[in-house]
Amino acid sequence: MLTVLVANIAAIITTGCFLPQVISVLKAKDTKAVSLVSYIALFCGVSLWVLYGFLVGEYSIVISNIIIAICALLVAGKKIINLKKGID
Fold first, then answer.
1. Can you give the pLDDT at residue 8?
2. What does the DSSP 8-state code read for residue 54?
3. For residues 68 and 45, what is the distance between their CA atoms, to the nearest angstrom?
4. Which of 20, 29, 30, 65 is most deeply packed, by most CB within 10 A?
5. The total number of structural domains that make up the chain
6. CATH number of the domain to which 61 belongs
């Protein structure tokens, strides 16, 4: 029971800390300071955490990392769009 509580708190904190940056990038539409490689690596890493969460049956790990994966894809996608437009 304690391990599930700790996992849930950790998931809320890590996901919550990441969301303001994503919101800032999407609102400002400025990705000059964003590293595409870092966001692709982040997406790969959290995708593996999702798989791990499914394998061990820890759905707090699955849910929080799915949210982070979607956010990483949004930022990476915006970066790619800006690169194609020549904005970055």
1. 86
2. H
3. 10
4. 65
5. 1
6. 1.20.1280.290
